Structure formats: structure tokens, C-alpha cells
Amino acid sequence: MTTSFNLHRRTVLGAIAALSSGLAAAQGKPETLQTLRIGLQKSSTLTTILRTRGTLEQLLAPLNVKVTWHEFTSGLPLLEALNLGNIDVSADVADTVPVFAQAAGANLTFVAQESPSPSAQAIVVRADSPIKTVAELKGKKIGFAKAAGVHFLLIAALEKSGLSFKDIEPAYLTPADGRAAFERGAIDAWVVWDPFLAAVQKQSAVRVLADGRDLASYQRYYLAGTPFAQARPDVLRVFFNELQKAGVWVKQSPKDAAALLAPVWGLDAGVIELANSRRSYEVRAVVPAALTEQQRIADAFFAEKLLPKRVNALDVPLFKTGA
Q1: Which residues pair with 114 in a beta bridge?
Q2: Is 322 helix (H, G, I), strand (E, B) or coil?
Q3: What residues of the chain score a pLDDT lower than 70?
Q4: Taking a C-beta distance cutoff of 8 angstroms, is the pair 168, 139 a contact?
Q5: What's the pLDDT score for residue 295?
Q6: What predicted TM-score, i.e. pTM, was given to this entire model?
């Protein structure tokens, strides 16, 4: 009788498992738990908000997806990790970074774009520096992160002043190393983006030689590995929608946003408010017409022999945010 009962019990449990599996398949939900690996950096404001609130973990659980977070110092190593398949999705990187990734043959899909925030990056010197104009940077040592948006800002500012990249001595530095070098006088100028820009403006005596206005739009991009974008568009749509909501919230509630980010970033809330005031945080779908400046960036870097080959900025998959 016991054997008969056990057989009956196993039959019932098997039927339940099969039914659950069938329901999951019918609902488009994978039977096995999958992981969404998101890469971000300190300037990834909206993604940091989602991470801090646990928003994606809650929304993706019904899709049988868990989330892991991976932090990088700047955009170039972030996209290198994406290209190598070490992460699935990249939080926002400056417009310059995808150009380098494309030149390296990366198989990436543009998921979203933040509308321009030109004043959120700038060339700064110490307040007591004798340098008063960009033209006076000739022969000077300038610190910045390679392939970051500030790299293009520097090229554009030099060109406008009649100089080329070869007229300066570049020092490729992460934001943390750049700040240290700047404050001890190891570099003559520093090109940096928010919130690092806001931090040095609030905490040190500096002057801005030029920001991105009339030079570089500074649009930031969210990307995914193309295989992941093709396999899980449902996950990317959740990600896109929540980025949009977070962007609206930051602009509508600047003090609340600064209070949320301050302990996470280890920065004063006033610094964060200043930084956030200069970012648009308007998340939108990427369309070919919006990639005009990407081509200008690519051409500028190729002309300076900083890219190994010409890049067609339009030759990249664009994620469709609609169902």
C-alpha cells in the first residue's frame, strides 16, 4: 500500500511540475533562473538609484531574472567588459566611449540615450593658475580619462582655439587619480565630468576654462551585448522604462535624489544637487538622427590617429523600446 501511495504521490507531483513548466513557457518565463549582470560607474546616476532602491530586482523576479551589479572606474573598461561578455548591460557611458568600442569590433546594441548635458563636463585649472584660456594649454600636461566624453571635449576645445591634440601632453587618469594629480599640481589642467566636476568645484578653488556648450553635446548611452538584447528584449524594456521614471524623479525631486545618492557616493548632498542640475536625465530611445554627433566624434578621433580605423556611427543595432 505504501508503494502504491508513493507512486501515486510521485505521479501527482510530476503532473504539477509539468503543469508549472507549461504555464511558465506559455507566459514566456524561463524555467531556470537567469542573471542580468549590469555594469555601472560612479556617474551612472539613474542606474545607481535603481540599484539602491532594489527596483529591478523586484520587477524582474516574476521573469525569473536576478540582478548582479559590477562597478567600473570609467566608461572604456565598462564597455570592454560588455564586449567580452563579462556583463550583459552597461549603464550610461559618455558618447565618446561607444565609438572606441565600435572601432574594436564590439557587438553592442544601443538601448537608450540621455539627451544633451553639455555643461556637465569641463576643463578646469586651479584658481591660482596663470592659464586663462584654452589656447594657453599648448605644451601643458592635461589629465583626463581616455575615451571618456571629456576626451572629445578636449579635442573640440583645442581645435576651436587653433590647436591640435599633439600640442598638449596627455595624462590618462581615472577620475580619482586625476583629482589627486590636479590638487598636487602634477597636471596643469583637468578635464572631468559630473559628479567629479561638481565635487572639485565645491571643495577646491578652481576656474572653468571651457565646458561642453558649443563644443560637445555630451549625450550618454546605455548599451547591451547584442546577444543579450536579442534574447531578452523583455528584460531590456523593463530596464528602459525604469530609467525613464528615475530620470523624471531626479529632476522633480532634486533634494530627495541628492539625499538618496549622498551616502552611496560618499559625496555631500550639495555637490550632488549641483551635478544633477547640469544633467538632463531625459532617457529616450536611440534613433539614427540622434547619432549625428557620434559620427563627428568618430571622425575627430580618427583624424587625430586615436582610432585604428574609420567608424560608421550608424552601423550599430538600435533597440526597439516598444513591445
Answers
A1: 220, 283
A2: coil
A3: 1-31, 323
A4: yes
A5: 93
A6: 0.85
Phi and psi (nearest 5°) for 293? -70, -30
What pLDDT, on the 0 to 100 scale, is given for residue 4?
A: 41
Distances 74 to 39, 86, 255, 256, 276 between C-alpha atoms, Å: 10, 16, 26, 26, 18
Cβ(250)–Cβ(49) below 8 Å = yes
Q: Is 250:48 a contact under the CB 8 Å cutoff?
A: no
Nearest-10 crossing angle of helices 292-303, 96-103: 60
Cell of 180: 589627486
Q: Are 41 and 72 in contact (CB under 8 A)?
A: yes
Residue position matching grid coordinates 560608421: 312
Q: Would you state the pLDDT for residue 32?
A: 84
H/E segment holding residue 102? helix 96-103
Continuous segment of H or E residues that includes residue 198:
helix 196-203
Is 250 within 8 Å of 257 (Cβ atoms)?
Answer: yes
Cell of 260: 538618496
* Strands annotated E in 115-219: 121-126, 141-144, 169-172, 189-193, 206-211
